[in-house]
Amino acid sequence: MKRVKKHVFFIVAFLILALTLTSVFGIAYTDGRGTKHTILKGIGDIRWGIDIRGGVEAIFKPDTAEEVTNEDLDAAKSTIEVRMVANNITDYELYADYSNDLIIVRFPWKSGESDYDPEKAIQEISATALLTFREGSEYETEETDDNGNVVQKTPKGVTAENVILQGSDVVNASAGIINNSSGAMEYVVNLEFSEEGSKKFAEATEELLGGTISVWMDDVMISAPRVSTVVDNGTCYISGSHVDANGNAQNGFTAAEASALASKIRAGALPFALKTQNFSTISPTLGEFSLDAMLLAGIIAFVLIAIFMIVMFRIPGVVSVIALAGQMAITFAAISGYLPFMNSFTMTLPGIAGVVLSVGVGVDANIITASRISEELANGKTLDGAIAKGCSSSFWSIFDGNITIIIVAIMLIGVFGPSNILSLIFGESTTGSIYSFGFTLLVGVIGNFIMGVFAARLMIKSLSSFKALHKKSLFGGKEA
What we know:
This protein is an alpha+beta fold and 480 residues long. The chain has three domains: 7-27 and 287-475, Multidrug efflux transporter AcrB transmembrane fold; 55-128 and 274-282, Alpha-Beta Plaits; 131-267, Gyrase A, domain 2, CATH 3.30.1360.200. Helices cover 48% and strands 21% of the residues. The chain is built from 13 helices and 19 strands. The strands form seven sheets. The chain has a four-stranded antiparallel β-sheet, covered by helices on one side. Strands 10-7-13-14 form a four-stranded antiparallel β-sheet. A hairpin with a 5-residue loop joins strand 11 (170-179) and strand 12. Helix 8 (288-313) runs antiparallel to helix 9 (315-336) and helix 9 (315-336) runs antiparallel to helix 10 (349-378). The longest helix has 34 residues, at 383-416. The two termini are 20 Å apart.
């Protein structure tokens, strides 16, 4: 066996520890104005499903004097669905009532929700979200938002008259990070234009070189960058930082604002404005006290598993505990949205069941590897030979078991998730709780491959390089 250097164990273990701590607790700070800035998300940023924390039920009616067809309602319903999916809200119910021209939607509260205001919550999905690029940056009114930032509204003059691009000219939008001219990190929204949109934007930037092209969402100016070069490659980014028409500097986007704006742009504008006819809160079927009880039970179960693995398999058992912690960290990171410009996944009770099942799969993978090493030692192999043979012979057993679970998880995500190609076979479904189960199970099994198979084996081989630990008895065998 080719030996792995001793320091590899400490590097891998440190990376797993760092990922575990940050994925559980996150990293955030509050500035002098009381605004929270998230660097890395933790468990507290997870968006819990309706069954755990409750949510909102809203009934929308088209706010238009024109006749609304079933196709119009379907278009509005599809746009709302895209917005849900873009925000990783999978635990939702969405219906169109064609006889009464209504759209009914139920979805869970945001992570970190404190005032539980349903009227405020539904604004996230009912905004018209009409994106436009306009010449200049003239506006009629000025307001101050809750964070003390100045908001310019309603374009006027040449800005109102000359629309360069609309949201339909954008084929993709995503949140990102850049280093601005002063070297500071800044959140932006990256845009990719259609072929026609690219031509329009190239012509506009050439014509307005040295001038301003402002970006508007509905009637609110969100950015007003100065054109410093001709943009002819079909891509650009929106930065919230700009100097307004009065020469005042405006703050940039937060990670959450950039992510939300990108989601709305991808979803596009609703075919008509929606007015809320009725709304109410939905009580959770489980409740947060039950969630606390499950958390405590999970900690106790993990401790018992750790004790069992260490007692039964010694060093491979210690390594398996570290690997399991890393697997859980990957799962938490995927659910919380870890990076600040990513959206939290909706976690339901079946989703928790998927996490628990994936942990069982991870434990099983570590037991198979440790048992194979022990068997090879019992057959008289050297420690290095037993570790090499045990790791190689156990891989395909683990792979065969996990690949079947991955296939099942993908089918659950495809069949019970948002509209996709499988909807042609199985029909449309909004059973987000089952989708949540498939998602957490899939992420957990992938985490098992990363941590339980590759990282764990690196750590085992690294620890066997230490002279004090190079003993068969510490790896499940007996000394000669």
